[in-house]
């Protein structure tokens, strides 16, 4: 039983590293189920949780997610390694286009919040 726990922890560690390497990918459901089924204690973790936080910068959201436990760490890794888009913001003077942009952004925000709340719990 102890060997199985070590194997699961090693698999989770490997998947976390893959998330860091592949910037555009997010954590997969298989890693989430491995985290939830794992019976290992925090002392048995083969990887250092602070690496993910330090690479992403210590912002408040990542810290809150990381405090939620192993599933929160996976969500923090997904947030930290997400694709950064640097589009310059330009104020739209056309009211109908502004409304369309607002609707699109609100839908995207709701979808993102739903995704992260289902990941963290």
From TrEMBL:
Entry's localization field: Nucleus
GO biological process, one term: regulation of transcription by RNA polymerase II
Signal peptide feature range: none
Keyword Transcription: yes
Keywords of this entry: DNA-binding, Nucleus, Transcription, Transcription regulation
Entry GO terms, CC: nucleus
Compositional bias (Acidic residues): 34-51
Assigned protein family: Belongs to the NRF1/Ewg family.
Name of the protein: Nuclear respiratory factor 1
Upper taxonomic lineage: Eukaryota, Metazoa, Chordata, Craniata, Vertebrata
